[in-house]
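Protein of interest.
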Amino acid sequence: MILKELKIKSWMGDATNCYIVQDEESKETMVIDPAGDVDKIVEMLDILQAKLKYIYLTHCHGDHTGAVTELKNRRGGKILINRIESENLNNPSVTLNYYIGMPDIELETDSRIDDDDLIHLGNIEFKVIHTPGHTNGSTSLYCEEEKMLFSGDTIFHGTWGRTDLPTGGFTDIMDSITNKILLLPDDTIIYPGHGKSTMVKEEKPIYQGMWGILEVGLVSFGTCTMTALIIMTTGVLQTGDTGAILVLNAFQNNFGILRKSHIGYYNSIVCVYVISWIFC
């Protein structure tokens, strides 16, 4: 397998990782998340003497799809996107494309993919994994033989994707990460939509150290009082000072790796700590 990573500057800020994957023998090639700068992508395809078979979209946001139509017009290839996400693809309130007036993306009837579908480039096999959370139709693409996962904006090095955009959800993204991605072999390399690559074994401690205890962070600041009472009643956390200490320690241990976009969860966690200390 040949893998090339292109950093594509987008109108949304951070550079997007566009991946080009090729089967060396057949030259069959897939472009994952062509964010923009189609000339740069085509130049690499020419260098590889690529036969473009698929244009794979991990999700519908404009910073991952900016060059889709032009790339298809110039080099062919079938666009692949999750069935749910295909409904979002031309909805500007979800794609955020209204900022740049990007034209609609036309899909073929067999462009829509589902969880567990298999995609082949020559002898290379990829498995589609539905990983909602960043959007409700987000997917990751897994190659068992090469031990690699293309995760889109679901998981990054040291953190997870935003969940405050339309169709996103924090509980969904945590479920996708903990019950799907982190169940893959430890030596699986994760290639995210932004930033540097990571490995499953590097990300596991983050979620093992916080998810069970910090489920309280899923609720808004206004409802955390009830959450604290439920937690104390059900015994998820120990009562008394020990329960408060557990919450505070988990918060302190994970503060450094949480993104600024998760400030709402900080508030919830701190609130639960204070309430558990007062009422226990």
